[in-house]
Design goal:
Blueprint: E1 3-8, E2 10-13, E3 18-25, E4 33-39, E5 46-51, E6 58-60, E7 68-73, E8 78-83, E9 92-99, E10 110-111, E11 115-120
């Protein structure tokens, strides 16, 4: 079992940068791929980025490709999401999820509580 907790986020201006982190507890953290999802007000939760257990394979939603970077440090049980060139439409609650590699929410095994990211225009 693994417990994941998000941190970071906050408020940024359009064009700016923010970073969010996902800290995992337990020695099995590296057994899980980690995926970031986000949910904007009034919208469904959507896939953002995913990283494999080793950190060598990554995938991004088209909406964030080239702007966001996902990485992980298994020694620190942490996954990072660096967000650059932020847009107001990136405003959402960002969720960290542990499970198989990929974008399918139905396969997620463990969810974090979410962290708010707000981008002003």
């Amino acid at each position: 079992q693994v417990h994941v907790v998000e941190s970071g986020g906050g408020l940024a201006q359009a064009g700016g940068s923010l970073s969010v982190s996902c800290a995992g507890s337990g020695r099995t953290f590296s057994n899980y791929a980690i995926t970031w999802f986000r949910q904007a007000p009034g919208k469904e939760r959507e896939f953002v980025a995913t990283v494999s257990r080793s950190g060598n394979v990554r995938s991004y939603a088209d909406s964030v490709k080239g702007r966001f970077t996902i990485s992980r440090d298994n020694g620190k049980n942490t996954v990072y999401l660096q967000m650059n060139s932020l847009k107001p439409e990136d405003t959402a609650v960002y969720y960290c999820a542990a499970g198989p590699y990929g974008s399918r929410q139905s396969l997620v095994e463990y969810w974090g509580q979410g962290t708010q990211v707000t981008v002003s225009s």
